[in-house]
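name: query_chain
kind: protein
chains: 1
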Amino acid sequence: MPNIVIFDTTLRDGEQSPGASMTLEEKVRIAKALERMRVDVIEAGFAVASPGDFESVKAVAHAVQDSRICSLARARAEDIDAAAGALRSAQASRIHTFIATSPIHMQYKLRLPPEQVLEHAVKAIRYARNLVDDVEFSCEDAGRSEPDFLCRIIEAAITAGARTINIPDTVGYAIPGQFGDLMATLLQRIPNADKAIFSVHCHNDLGLAVANSLAAVLAGARQVECTINGLGERAGNAALEEVVMALATRKDLFGLETRIQTTEIVPTSRLVSSITGFPVQPNKAIVGANAFAHESGIHQDGVLKHRETYEIMRAQDVGWNTNRMVLGKHSGRAAFRARLEQLGIALDSDGMLNDLFARFKELADKKHDIYDEDLHALLSSVSTTEIPKIYALIALEVLSKTGQAPEANLSLSVHGQQKQVRATGSGPVDAAFRAIEALANSGASLELYSVNAITSGTDSQGEVQVRLNDAGRIVNGQGADTDILVASVKAYLDALNLLSSPLQRAHPQMSGDGI
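structure:
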């Protein structure tokens, strides 16, 4: 069967979700997970956007061996030079250049007539082909572009050397039938269409990103651009896990295959959720906690008699482990390491293993059973060498009585020195955050405070995400603990440490364009 190329843009378009900015180390961890999943093309970033983005693309290109690494670039020489420089060490590389082709974008954003847009596209593709063998060209806002102009610019792009042509529904405007017809029209009308692979990149503003992507595949597209958990700007992108499993489950309709190792889907989904701080909703297809759960008595009876009465996929095929080992305080290091390996968690050193195992033992003293979700939360708390730990929690005492303002008494390590501070607030969390700010005086504004239970039960760890905005630089801090107040303080301190990092870089939405 022919293959569909899976192009993952979690590290680029996914990072453009407000608050989803990732560190270099986190991008490499996700890229390695995508490589284990056998993703064909990994779009590692927008190299020209900032020095941080350039270094991230460079690090991913160096770390990944078995997937093609791609960098986005506008149809400008400086963008293409940056992309080529960041990709220099990649085993296989691609430059993905784009320019807007819809009337509204050409008139109001580019302020260029169609003929000049076509000239810029051809010039950029030829320039990129002098630097790399694999060039992809995107017609930004193709979903609202005129078919006649699309045919002209795509024919010229293929002649100039583009090996992949991407048709993005940049603003999520398309409807499946109409979008499939557009793809079919382009393939039929463009004389040299057989010289390139046609791709789709759909946004989810109307909740139709996956449906539009699959309609385009039925019409002849052979690459789908998507993200883990559907992460992306605004309402997100087509979800990789949904596209891949739709193709796998309905081979009778599509007659197509991907290279994806589907058992890596759930571990990768959890990793991305943990790093970005974007929880996966329980009823999310494929990777949601309830995706393979049955509560209705009728459904339960049917599944017990024959699984396929109510399940069209096996949970194990996408990485769920229904027979998982339960870890507790009596578990040893060998069992702990084995479970991490089963979850696809690779640690860089024995030091990281020791740190994680010590945290695991501390947690096991607080709660009886340790689940896979707990291990992922613990992993995100392990200290890294990239971000300096300027602030660290030593002790926390919170007094909260009915009719009285809550008071937090904090002991913090600040640049290695212990400092004590007290503050009151409208609630215990507010009091704790005010106490921290009394010492840190960061000036950052709190944009998000989110609490999620990692597992069920009253002894569950609480996982807290804190989003801070410091003059346009947005960071996500994370903390997990069975005490939700401690988790909240850890998350706030983690965010402050990120803001204090010398690795300053702009949030993706603060610079550049995107498709």
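note: The CA atoms of residues 26 and 275 lie 7 Å apart.
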